[in-house]
Specification:
Radius of gyration: 23 Å
Largest sheet: none
Number of helices: 20
Structural class: mainly alpha
Number of domains: 2
């Protein structure tokens, strides 16, 4: 198996497993803590996640790219990056401490922030070490450690919850998992790649790395702001309980995103290649990506919408009101899924600056809408903002596509119609049987009905399925186009 195929397999498997494990311990937290304590826990994570961008500033992406181009310079690249990140980490920790005191947070929340920032710093350095491995075209060790990370959190959390431990102890599981990841990543750097992990102040190289990291850093800053700022605003405007309720649809959506993420990760190199070599194949590959993302999003969106009341039951009666929040979020899901291939083709075809501009516009609109809608509608306002901004981000990106390639709209709209029709058939069946059957059995029946309807309506052909499977396996690009 080629390195691309191996990396794709490792990445896909790791992504699936870590999302499943993460959703498992989130469910345990929600059931044990209740919305208010859960809100405090994830508010601390949101604050520290926003500040963490100032430790990296896009350097991880640059390290991977430069090590891939100049493997013989890997040691000097890593050493200079570490030298920069050390003072950035200190400044970030001080900024987090100053922020928590300036806003007068409750002592419990401040303690959670202090514990979480330790994990954030460790993760930042771990990310750079694995960026070197990526530069050497290896995702195996990173994939393995990401699963072990989640297992450490899950197992320690089970012990803490059984003993009635507090949120501080649960936050401590992140530190322990991050510490393992940190030590393991250093071991890989030293034993596998034979690189010493010591900082070196090579000012010309540092200046060069910073200049190359700027575009990546800007995008990461805006993206992190867009992802976590709604939780921060919710806490300020509606309280910790609102943040806890909001986490239910948020975590479910994050968990589901492994579906398009794994596929698009394997598709990105192909889009980049076709941009320079064959524009017809570029259009074909993008159209197929759109079709697959829709074929995945529609049944998940429709099915979760119909079963929302059954799903939130897993989190106990305290979360029954999140059923409506989950339904609104599921309306946004197809737009989010489509955003993956759109963003991927923009980055692959030298439109990364436009992608950053689009993300910046979307983040600003998100902040404004949250400020308007949260005071009026509470948590529902944050979910409505997610829906509106998901559509906005997709529209902004789609406007650039005609500048890149010519699409066959008739084929795209035909596939869309057939996929939606199959989804509606499945939706009717789910609504009919959901009150009579176990949710698991209902989901199995729904999946079978959707697959059968999709086959009958010819929404996806056998060649389409083969293309999808081969792309996930990382097959040679020429074998993907039939």
């Amino acid at each position: 198996m080629s390195n691309i195929a191996k990396n794709t397999s490792y990445f896909t498997l790791a992504l699936v497993l870590q999302k499943i494990i993460s959703l498992t311990y989130f469910t345990l937290y929600a059931r044990a803590l209740g919305p208010a304590d859960l809100g405090q826990y994830y508010f601390a994570i949101s604050i520290t996640s926003i500040f963490s961008i100032f430790i990296d500033l896009g350097l991880g992406n640059v390290v991977t790219r430069e090590v891939a181009k100049y493997p013989e310079k890997a040691r000097s690249i890593l050493a200079s990056t570490i030298a920069v990140k050390l003072p950035l980490a200190v400044l970030t920790v001080l900024a987090v401490l100053a922020w928590s005191f300036a806003w007068g947070y409750d002592p419990v929340i401040r303690q959670l922030i202090y514990i979480c920032v330790i994990a954030v710093v460790l993760d930042s350095f771990t990310g750079v070490f694995y960026a070197v491995s990526r530069g050497f075209h290896n995702l195996k060790f990173e994939s393995i450690s990401s699963i072990i990370f989640q297992l450490i959190v899950l197992l320690l959390s089970l012990v803490i919850l059984k003993r009635g431990g507090s949120t501080n102890w649960l936050m401590g599981t992140l530190v322990m998992a991050s510490l393992f990841n940190f030590i393991y990543s250093i071991a890989i750097i030293r034993s596998v790649w034979k690189i010493r992990v010591t900082p070196i102040w090579d000012l010309p190289l540092i200046k060069k790395l910073f200049s190359m990291a700027l575009p990546f850093g800007l995008f990461v800053i805006v993206q992190r702001f867009y992802t976590y700022f709604d939780a921060v605003l919710l806490f300020k405007l509606a309280g910790d309980r609102a943040v806890g309720l909001y986490q239910v649809p948020f975590k479910i959506i994050i968990a589901l995103q492994f579906l398009p993420m794994a596929f698009v990760a394997s598709l990105y190199p192909l889009l980049s290649t076709y941009w320079h070599s064959n524009r017809e194949k570029l259009a074909y590959a993008f159209e197929k990506a759109v079709t697959y993302c829709l074929a995945l999003a529609i049944p998940v969106s429709f099915g979760t919408f119909a079963l929302a009341d059954k799903i939130v039951w897993l989190f106990k009666d305290q979360y029954t009101e999140t059923a409506m929040l989950l339904k609104v979020s599921m309306i946004a899901l197809p737009f989010m899924f489509l955003g993956f291939p759109v963003g991927s083709i923009l980055n692959a075809c030298d439109r990364q600056k436009r992608n950053t501009i689009n993300m910046t516009i979307t983040a600003l609109v998100s902040a404004i809408l949250n400020l308007i809608l949260i005071p009026r509608f509470g948590v529902l306002g944050a979910c409505l903002t997610t829906l509106i901004t998901s559509i906005l981000m997709l529209v902004l990106g789609w406007m650039v596509i005609p500048q890149i390639t010519h699409l066959h709209w008739k084929a795209i709209l035909s596939s869309l119609g057939k996929i939606i029709l199959a989804g509606l058939v499945m939706l009717v069946v789910v609504l009919f049987v959901k009150n009579y059957l176990n949710p698991i059995i209902t989901i199995i029946i729904a999946a079978l009905v959707y697959a059968l309807a999709l086959y009958v309506f010819k929404g996806v052909s056998r060649d389409d399925i083969n293309y999808f499977i081969n792309s996930l396996k990382g097959k040679d690009e020429e074998n993907l186009i039939v």
